[in-house]
Write a structure and sequence with these properties.
The chain contains 8 helices and 17 strands. The protein is of the alpha+beta class. The structure holds 2-acetamido-2-deoxy-beta-D-glucopyranose (3 copies). One 2-acetamido-2-deoxy-beta-D-glucopyranose (NAG) binds next to loops.
Length: 333
């Protein structure tokens, strides 16, 4: 498969010329970042701490810094990205376009990129699968914008034994799309990209196997509702698939066609997922695959409420729509 096949696939998902910059420039640049980050992970044998704690108090790892720099560098070569912020540096800043990328013309499209460069720092030392989460917003900011219409694309990088990418696209006037790609060392540049599935879909019942991924399972000890939900899965012979990496845990459901991921909010377990850097892009992907993503605090769709500040956090229930509905009933009624 050549990179032009990928472009062709993306273009046929979004035929409108109004998103040419997104399809031909922004998405290929981000997909290339995933192959670059995968490559630097392969050669980073010591995932030592870079010495600083990031804005949320997490220890920053050297590989986080590599991933952050790779994405910052790629977007600074892409004239359509005007604003960026990340979990490592949660301040929206104007992107200074590198000189050689500047055409002198002011492009008509403009996007804001918000990303979590490397999600899963706590499981990276044992070499478990980690991921990158990127959201692309139409316009000059993600703040105060309606996520359901302004978040137009998400890119998830999955770094396991293979490197795969999930891309979701939902632009006004086109059918939502979700694709799974496999990428090689050089990414789109050398055509080392393959469309594994051109339509990632959660399936409908009856399900052959039902999967559950219960984050912060310890919280069930102090929360009767979470405990009874977990008990339901056990008694009904659901299969446990949980690694503690948000990206691989959500992607598991997308690849198997069924699954429910729960990161509850209880009196002892605080909302800890970042709405902008984690929840919004994942919610778009799950919705484009035909699933649902809700906030366990009130049952509203993750993409319903605009962002008031870049540091907002929440819990998450996502996956197969009917499973999400069931979990909501148990946790909220
Ligand atoms: C988000 O957190 C960072 C680091 O603590 C801080 O610099 C920034 O001002 C915060 N943003 C808002 C809107 O509170
Ligand atoms: C930025 O994009 C918006 C559409 O999202 C458009 O209305 C606006 O004119 C663009 N502005 C510039 C300066 O390109
Ligand atoms: C980590 O796992 C990948 C395959 O998943 C492998 O290529 C790499 O050598 C492993 N690294 C270490 C340090 O074990």
């Amino acid at each position: 498969m050549t990179s032009s096949d990928l472009t062709h696939q993306l273009r046929s998902a979004v035929p409108s010329q109004a998103y040419k910059g997104l399809i031909d420039s922004v998405l290929p640049a981000l997909i290339n970042c995933i192959s670059d980050i995968a490559k630097s992970l392969r050669t980073s044998h010591y995932v030592s701490q870079a010495g600083s704690a990031n804005a949320f108090g997490d220890d920053q790892l050297n590989v986080d810094v590599l991933a952050e720099n790779s994405i910052r560098d790629a977007i600074s070569r892409c004239p359509f990205v005007v604003t960026a912020s990340s979990e490592e540096d949660p301040v929206e800043r104007h992107v200074q376009i590198q000189e050689e990328a500047s055409t002198g013309n002011i492009p008509e499209e403009n996007y804001t990129v918000a990303f979590d460069p490397l999600d899963g720092s706590s499981i990276i030392a044992p070499n478990w699968t980690v991921g990158t989460i990127i959201g692309v917003w139409q316009g000059k900011t993600a703040l105060g914008q309606p996520p359901a219409s302004k978040l137009v694309a998400s890119v998830l990088g999955v770094y396991g034994p293979r490197t795969t990418v999930i891309v979701a696209l939902r632009v006004p006037g086109s059918k939502p799309t979700c694709l799974e790609l496999g990428i090689g060392e050089n990414g789109v540049r050398d055509g080392e990209v393959e469309v594994i599935r051109s339509a990632v879909r959660l399936t409908e019942s009856p399900y052959k196997t039902r999967y559950f991924a219960p984050a912060n399972l310890r919280a069930a000890a102090d929360d009767e509702k979470y405990m009874s939900l977990i008990t339901h899965y056990i008694q009904n012979k659901y299969t446990l698939r949980y690694s503690g990496g948000l990206v691989p845990d959500v992607v598991h459901a997308l690849v198997k066609g069924h699954g429910i991921y729960i990161s509850p909010v209880t009196s002892t377990s605080k909302a800890k997922l970042r709405r902008l850097y984690e929840l919004f892009p994942l919610a778009l992907i799950v919705e484009c695959a035909g699933g649902a993503a809700i906030d366990p605090a009130d049952g509203t769709n993750i993409l319903e409420r605009p962002l008031g500040d870049l540091n907002e956090t929440a819990g998450l229930i996502c996956g197969t729509a009917e499973e999400v509905e069931f979990a909501k009933k148990i946790l909220l009624d």
